[in-house]
Amino acid sequence: MIELNGNSLTLEQVGKVLFDKSMVSVTEASMEKVKKSRQAVEKIVADKKVVYGINTGFGKFSDVLIEAEDVEELQLNLIHSHACGVGDPFPEVVSRAMVLLRANALIKGFSGVRPVIIERLIDLINAEIHPVIPQQGSLGASGDLAPLSHLALVLMGEGEVFYKGEITSAIHALSKEGICPIVLQAKEGLALINGTQAMTAVGVVNYLEAEKLALESEMIASITMEALRGIMDAFDEDVHLARGYTQQTEVAKRINAYLSDSRLTTRQGELRVQDAYSLRCIPQVHGASWQALDYVKEKLEIEINAATDNPLIFDDGEKIISGGNFHGQPIALAMDFMKIAVAELANISERRIERLVNPQLNDLPPFLSPQPGLQSGAMIMQYCAASLVSENKTLAHPASVDSIPSSANQEDHVSMGTIGARHAHQIIGNARRVLAIELICALQGVEFRGVDQMAKATKGFFDEARKIVPTIEKDRVFSKDIENMNLWLKETDWERHGQTRAKTNA
Q: Which of 64, 156, 447, 474 suits 11 as a labelling partner, its CA being 20 to 30 A distant?
């Protein structure tokens, strides 16, 4: 059970909720804050005090006063009009993350919603009812209005949901689980949609996948080192301590650990004096990507515990401030940074693939073919990797440098953070396929060298990978092999192999 209090949720806990389907609850102390915040909203409505988002219109309509008897209709109209997302839905895991993060933000007690709103969000998580939320349509300020409106629809018994492996109507799923729809009251519609939970939810899933992929990339690169008889001197700790980047030193340390007992790697001068950059500079390049990922993690851990709606209620309603915490710029920049970091893991991987298949760059059979000429071997797999890397270069263009004014120029600078997060997710998928191709090629390469001479760690990985993609004995439809390897890299629990940053650094 993961207990939410609005302040201490971690990425590890989010991962347990998303992938292990851990149940969720809320602390009593947090719910008391929610109740006090709600009392402040109800007093504002009763006293007819004019406060943005409670009894006014929204955006450019902020100067339009709404009568008390129309406040519920105002919230209904808000959700209906803002639920205009388009395109394919977010993956179900992202939708689950959005519900979790919105609940965690609201229980901070700054938003003025009734406790029942939070209870219903928790009900959705624990019943595994996940809103169907279109991916496109958010500017990333004022928050993720369109995506979160589709989430709010479900609380009202409208829209569609993922439920028991199918897409069905929200009211059907709620009825099956005995969950009553809600009629939104003052401030509640705005509180549900004025936030960064779409971009942050995608960002969290991105980070969890990218962290895993970055670790896998080091093991895959280690097998490539064996296939190409790589020189281990470049991974000597003194080299990396001399530069001073912790992440660079950690990468070198992990690869040294993986290859410590290998009989396939070489030393300076045995076969050649130095390797190409794609081998020699693995710690420098991968380490820099880890630096970026660490930055992303830091921002996400702040954002998943942030109050991001507007206005915010302080001091039991004595202070109500209309600010801009919904602006997604911190996450927008983080997602753009992540895009570049992961794209570079694929970039250098593709260069290692080229070294594995190009007979002018190694002494392996041309294109790792069992019968060069008659059979093409891995020739076109390298083409595929090159195509994915090139696509990543276009996707890596920063979304955050763009802004289009909205709401009659009242909202005149926006983050485009959700676009950045979506593109980062595409880059991660592309990068994983590139690394899957490198692994297929590296496995073939070490077989030519002698599997019995591999290091214990890489041999263990080799044995697992060979259960997914068998030896290339003749040309076949390699698309299936790439996709199978990609899925294996995405879904396998590497912690049971001891392959985590903490354990490999110990």
A: 156
Q: List, in order, residues 6 or more apart from 363 with CB less than 8 Å away.
A: none
> Following DSSP, what letter does each residue of 343-377 receive, concatenated?
HHHHHHHHHHHHHHH-TTT-SSPGGG-SSBTTB-T
Angstrom distance (rounded) from CA 372 to CA 379: 10
Average pLDDT, the chain: 93
134 in Cβ contact with 148 (< 8 Å): no
Q: Which of 52, 258, 295, 383 is catalytic?
A: 52
Q: Is 52 part of the annotated catalytic residue set?
A: yes
Strands 312-314 and 166-169: unpaired
Of 251, 415, 283, give the one whose Cα is nearest residue 336.
415
Pairing relationship of beta strands 130-131 and 160-163 according to DSSP bridges: antiparallel
Residues 389 and 346: beta-carbon distance below 8 Å: yes
Q: Which domains does the chain have, with CATH numbers?
A: 2-194 (1.10.275.10), 204-307+315-404+415-496 (1.20.200.10)
Q: What is the pLDDT of residues 42-58, one digit of tens each?
A: 888 888 887 887 878 77
pTM attached to this predicted model: 0.94
